[in-house]
From TrEMBL, chain A:
SUPFAM superfamilies per the UniProt record, alphabetical: Periplasmic binding protein-like II
Alphabetized PROSITE patterns for the sequence: TAT
Keyword ATP-binding attributed: no
Name of the protein described by the UniProt record: ABC transporter substrate-binding protein
Keyword Ribonucleoprotein: no
Keywords: Periplasm, Signal
The species this protein was found in: Methylobacterium iners
PANTHER family recorded: SPERMIDINE/PUTRESCINE-BINDING PERIPLASMIC PROTEIN, SPERMIDINE_PUTRESCINE-BINDING PERIPLASMIC PROTEIN
From TrEMBL, chain B:
TM regions (residue ranges): 31-53, 104-121, 133-154, 185-204, 283-304
UniProt keyword list: Cell membrane, Membrane, Transmembrane, Transmembrane helix, Transport
Entry's family note: Belongs to the binding-protein-dependent transport system permease family. CysTW subfamily.
SUPFAM superfamilies referenced in this protein's UniProt entry, alphabetically: MetI-like
Topology term for the membrane: Multi-pass membrane protein
Domain ABC transmembrane type-1: 96-304
Domain of life: Bacteria
Protein name (database record): ABC transmembrane type-1 domain-containing protein
A Pfam family matched in the record: BPD_transp_1
Location relative to the cell: Cell membrane
Length: 424, 314
């Protein structure tokens, strides 16, 4: 595996050097252009969850590029791209936001020929497949919005083109978090979220576009209704879903709704809730507080999400080169391994594998019991030896995706109905 | 006018008196306008213009990624959708009723507590130094942000929080009281905690100006303590009460953080609706909601100023 590392680093540096040559800076020493010239700073807009200081430090070390994080919440990322496209040099956005972002023309298609590992990006994105098997594509599945018709096009392409909307950074399969010590019986289905047994001890997230998908998973699980596309409901389907939620709310099913990461951690860790929609790192955080918490795989499948790097249309010159250098570096392994160790998945799996110990890879990606204690990127022990990752291997988790976070056609109507649910 | 006219006559003896007077008056007027200009400018730039923009945008159309300059009443129609059907309360009516309920409860409690504290400070604490010290003590909670003050209630009120644990420990209850947190009770509690000081300050200010001889006179005339309070102190403290009430009511009407955190996001507030719409780029809808909220608050303030003529009382 160490061969792969050296190989990757070398090619990366060579590539960067070549870029420098092309840019006419005259750097033929093999160092990236950005080091030989004035240091470049990239303003990185995204959510705080993905913005680690370790990654920024490593980029500075390897490429000499300074990463200046602009941390905001998911909705704010979208709002910034639409309303202030000059306030960042690179954006880390969720794929489902693309249906709002691309029509504005504020982002440009990224040239696949300048992304060294573009052809190695997992087929989850390019074809919607895991290990050759098609996965659920309800909602805004990345494959539907991965390619543009042209660099400045505002239309998504039906088949692969040279122009990529977002280069994936992280993605994951979300499910319900539970407190096994308080529930004391196996949970296998989404319908348990609205099971009266957990009256006053359940929670759902108060982010309308995601919350309604979780509700739809529950309704399908109860067998009441099967949606043609949970990620793109008709008005009647929205009414139906909200009605179920309102009934549950009036019956006192929910203890609270949560809106940010920490709220979900606190609800679960304090025992206010025992079952709720949750994000993977939140489960890890609850566990690190010594509280039993399981990210429970469910038979109906996962609701997946993915985010990736996009470039503003106005980016040019050295900043543009630096952005491509940074993205190439990001896909070259170190960052991927870093993200995999947090429980996310990275875009190019083979380069990340090269940067992980075999026992780490076996635990995080193959779903095997940990040979040794599993440590997070910061060195803290996340799992004791012998533990198995919730949901198992990459193939069984990402392969079990039922739908993707989405923006619906009837989004405006949905938001209004969601407000009705909150007021009920 | 006479004050201004006198020096004018003295300064400009050569000119006809009448002409000099108007020139002076005009200059004085211009000066007055100039003096008021900075405030007016600040108001114009930071209040009138944004408000006008909000009003304008509230009539625009929008889609997922852009707002379209057009004229539509759809945003307002959406707000009041279902409000005329009558069978069940519409979302907007429900939301405003809930917000009004919090307004009333918070107002009643903060008034009661604020009045009592101000009364104690003014009439029971003799030395002005102690008075000031105690008054400053009232503001200590403001040294931290209001979000922290709010969140600090959560470990206390939670299902496994301090209060429930204590009550269970001494055997008063065997099942935790869920209603302490994420409920109307929690919201009102936090509101009262956060806003009482806005009642204390103006009421204290009004009371401090009450002439003590009036109270002595009331005693001399044979009034009981309660009679003095009701017939002398309360009427004279009215401006303070009115100002405090305006503060508290406007703060509660526009709040969405407190209701969100303490109500576990389960309780609707107008501010929350606006925030959700803003975060999904539905600016015209949010603007329309903001305009409706503004009207509602203005009606309340106008009603209050009908009851008390603030300008006269100050």
């Amino acid at each position: 595996m160490s061969d792969t590392i050296r190989f990757t680093r070398r090619t990366l540096l060579q590539g960067a050097g070549a870029t420098g040559l092309a840019a006419g800076s005259g750097a033929i020493t093999g160092f990236p252009a950005v080091i030989s010239a004035e240091p470049v700073t990239l303003r990185y807009l995204g959510t705080a969850v993905n913005q680690s200081s370790d990654i920024a430090r490593k980029v500075k070390e390897d490429l000499g590029i300074t990463i200046e994080y602009v941390p905001v919440v998911t909705d704010e990322v979208t709002k910034r791209v639409v309303t202030q496209p000059n306030s960042f040099d690179i954006v880390d956005s969720e794929y489902f936001s693309l249906r709002k972002l691309i029509p504005t023309g504020n982002l440009m298609g990224m040239d696949a020929r300048r992304i060294k590992n573009a052809d190695k990006i997992t087929p989850v994105f390019t074809r919607g497949e895991v290990a050759g098997k098609k996965i659920g594509d309800q909602g805004t599945a990345p494959k539907k919005v991965f390619y543009l018709e042209g660099q400045t096009s505002t239309k998504f392409a039906g088949e692969p083109t040279q122009w990529i909307t977002l280069i994936p950074t992280t993605y994951n399969a979300d499910t319900l978090g539970i407190r096994p010590d308080l529930i004391k019986r196996p949970i296998t289905s989404w319908k348990e979220l609205l099971n009266p047994e957990f009256k006053g001890r359940a929670s759902i997230l108060n982010i309308p576009s995601i919350g309604i998908m979780d509700a739809a998973m529950v309704i399908e699980a109860t067998g009441d209704y099967t949606y043609p596309d949970k990620g793109n409901m008709t008005k009647a389907e929205i009414d139906r879903t909200i009605k179920v939620l309102i009934e549950a709310k009036r019956a006192g099913q929910f203890r609270a709704f949560w809106q940010d990461f920490n709220e979900s951690v606190n609800l679960m860790a304090s025992g206010e809730t025992v079952i709720q929609s949750m994000w993977s790192p939140a489960v890890t955080k609850v566990r690190s507080q010594g509280v039993a918490c399981t990210y429970q795989p469910l038979k109906e499948g996962y609701r997946a999400w993915a985010s990736g790097f996009g470039l503003p249309k106005t980016l040019s010159g050295r900043k543009l080169d630096a952005a491509y250098d940074f993205i190439n570096w990001f896909l070259s392994g170190w960052a991927g391994a870093y993200l995999n160790r947090q429980g996310y998945y990275s875009a190019v799996l083979e380069t990340a594998k090269g940067q992980m110990e075999p026992y780490e890879w076996a635990f995080w990606m193959e779903g095997k019991p940990a040979e040794r204690d599993i440590k997070g990127p910061d060195g803290s022990v996340l799992e004791k030896a012998g533990a198995v990752r919730d949901g198992g291997s990459f193939e069984s988790r990402m392969g079990g995706v039922a739908c993707w976070n989405a923006v619906m056609d009837e989004n405006t109507y949905m938001i209004r109905k969601w407000n009705e649910f909150i007021a009920a | 006018m006479t004050d201004l006219a006198l020096p004018a006559l003295a300064d400009a003896p050569a000119k006809p008196a009448a002409a000099g007077l108007t020139a002076r008056t005009r200059r004085a007027r211009a000066l007055a306008y100039l003096q008021a200009a900075p405030m007016a400018l600040v108001f114009l730039v930071f209040f009138v213009v944004p408000l006008a923009l909000t009003l304008m945008v509230s009539f625009w159309e929008y889609n997922e990624y852009e707002i379209i300059p057009a004229f539509t009443l759809q945003n307002y129609a959406d707000i009041f959708e279902g409000c005329l059907s009558g069978s069940d309360l519409c979302t907007t009516a429900r939301t405003y009723l809930s917000t009004l309920k919090f307004c009333f409860l918070t107002w009643a409690f903060t008034l009661l507590i604020g009045f009592t504290v101000a009364y104690f400070l003014t009439f029971h604490v003799r030395s002005p130094t102690t008075q000031m010290v105690l008054f400053l003590v009232c503001t200590i909670p403001f040294w931290t942000s209001n979000v922290i003050r709010m969140i600090s209630w959560i470990p206390l009120l939670g299902r496994n929080g301090l209060i429930n644990d204590t009550l269970r420990g001494i055997g008063l209850i065997d099942k935790p009281i869920d209603g302490l947190l994420y409920s109307d009770f929690a919201v009102v509690l936090a509101f009262v905690h956060l806003n009482t000081v806005f009642m204390i300050v103006p009421i204290f200010n009004s009371m401090a100006r009450i002439d003590r001889s009036l109270i002595e006179a009331a005693y001399d005339a044979g009034a009981t303590g309660w009679q003095t309070l009701w017939n002398v102190i309360v009427p004279l403290a009215k401006p303070g009460i009115a100002i405090g009430s305006i503060f508290v009511i406007t703060l509660v009407m526009g709040d969405f953080v407190t209701v969100g955190v303490m109500g576990g996001q389960q309780i609707a507030s107008v501010g929350k609706i606006i925030q959700v719409q803003m975060s999904v780029l539905q600016f015209p809808a949010a603007a329309a909601n903001a305009v409706v909220l503004l009207c509602a608050v203005m009606v309340m303030i106008l009603t209050m100023s009908r009851l008390i003529d603030l300008r006269k009382e100050l």
